[in-house]
Amino acid sequence: MPDYSGATKNKVRELMLGSAVDALTTKRHSAEIIAGDELRVTFDRFLQLIEAGWSGAIPFEVLHQAAEAELADWIEFDACSNAPREPRELKVLYLCGPSPNNDLRVLLKHGINIHNVWAVTGSSDDSAAAHAELAKFNFALKIHEGSLADFFENYNEVFDLIYFDACGPFMGGRPSTLTPLLAILERQRL
Fold first, then answer.
1. 48: domain range?
2. Residue 149's pLDDT is what?
3. What is the dihedral of CA 31, 33, 37, 39, to 10 degrees?
4. Tens of pLDDT, residues 48-91
5. Total domain count for the chain?
6. Is residue 2 included in any domain, yes or no?
7. 37 belongs to a structural domain
8. CA–CA separation, 69 vs 73, rounded Å?
9. Which residues of the chain, if any, have pLDDT below 50?
10. How far apart are alpha carbons 103 and 14 in whole angstroms?
């Protein structure tokens, strides 16, 4: 069985998972793709450009009011979606293979609630080894045996963090590292 607990692997695991939890909690607003103040400036500029060339059947003020209402709805949605979160609130999915404890211990150390964690293992042998390892530590982890695509077909979960720790080339390797990433995006699970 491969060793998933080497010093380098553990250092990378701690760095990646710790950074991800921080980005989703304490640094959540510093990583926003759309900044509210910049959105307002862009929105106002586009309305000015539209108004300058406006020759619509309805008065521009009606369009302006409708656009403002839509922007207000979006800002409210964004505020709800990007509200400050605690690590215990984050929903996490990861590929556990036969050794789920390595990643799980780091997640728990960073405050993730084990009941918000799903693990995926690709084969019955890996699943059996994972359950045996978890039993030693009395961890109650939800494990799905099968591919990520299978998991997404069976469970309609959306995750804050998907730790996709693949060992292979991005394009054309075996097993495919691109197919699971496409499944995540296609099913809007992140």
1. 33-81
2. 79
3. 180
4. 999 998 888 899 999 999 999 999 999 888 888 777 789 999 99
5. 2
6. no
7. yes
8. 6
9. none
10. 8
